[in-house]
Amino acid sequence: MPDWKRIISQLKRRGVLSTVIWILSLLAIGVFDNLTAKIIPAISQKIENFYDPHTANLSFDEPIVLAERGLYLRKPSEEADPEGYSRYDVVSERSIVVYAEPDNYIMTVKRINNGQVEIARDAVGIQRRGEKITVKFLPNDWKKPGELARDLPAAPPTQSQAAATDMVVASTRWVTTADDFAILSSISDKGARELLGAALIEVGVDENGTQQDKDRISDYWRSVAGWNTPTEGVPWGGAFLSWVVTHAGFEPPRAAPSFLAWQNWGVELPQDDVRPGTLAIFRRANLPEASSRLLIGVVLRKQRDCIEIITGNVADHVAISCIKGDRALRAPDSRRVAKQS
User: Fold this and answer.
1) Which whole number is the average pLDDT over 25-37?
2) Are 254 and 261 in contact (CB under 8 A)?
3) How confident is the model at residue 28 (pLDDT cuts 50, 70, 90)?
4) In the prediction, which pLDDT does 125 show?
5) Do the beta carbons of residue 295 and residue 167 sit within 8 Å?
6) Are 292 and 76 within 8 A, CB to CB?
7) Residues in contact with 256: Cβ distance below 8 Å, sequence separation at least 6, in sequence order
8) What's the DSSP call for residue 208?
9) Structural Rg of the chain based on CA atoms
10) Are the C-beta atoms of residues 326 and 169 closer than 8 Å to each other?
């Protein structure tokens, strides 16, 4: 808003011509300030990126023969492009230089294996220019293109797909019962038992609750190694999973705050093999504000017509929700334990 009182005062004191010159001078100073504060630094950054682009070195633990356009990095908030690829240079079968600025990405790798194209996905966080990142894929991480298409897609399903497969929340609560904790004694697998136990004790944490609750959510974020993105207003369901998995003794995926990063975590289970202490992954296309279109939580129990999972950031709580719908199931992988400090 113009400062009319100040302008009228100038008119009375200096006249029309002097006031116009005064206003134009203020405008020129404002343009100059904007130029020096925003425009020139932005142009300088683009020039620097042109002559010295941001890169990261991907080091694979086994030789990989990339297919044509075989590497694709996209930010978790971006829609997946089936034909997308990133600029990269192949140094050797174990080393690739990718051109990407520091950020968090979902990485898709296409390789040629026995004459066939295979695809694997993981999440990577690039923290600084020239960073060396070790990439490790297990044999069951690699899928044929058709198999990957049948898996939970990174892109939102179509409306017809959503009608058939989208999840429905049957109930939600943020209090536990003695029967919930009694399930722990029925789990023979130690890793699954500790995963569920770590999740159960967090039920009821409220984003808008006490300072202790807010500090607890900060703990979830601190469990994410190398995550430098500001957390204010950022959905924290993935950070909650990272905390649970870490406390159970397992290694979370890179870029864990994005639910997309969890789609290949652990070991795949058949869809009907619902076990307490595993992860259940549901589509959620009916919630367009969720860019991943996924809801993921720790399985508590299978009810008659839905599966109870413990998940973070549901109505701002760590909650137990009973979900109906198709799902993918992932069990902890004992080969990927958390690194000891």
Assistant:
1) 53
2) yes
3) low
4) 74
5) yes
6) yes
7) 123, 224, 227, 238, 239, 241, 242, 245, 262
8) T
9) 25
10) no
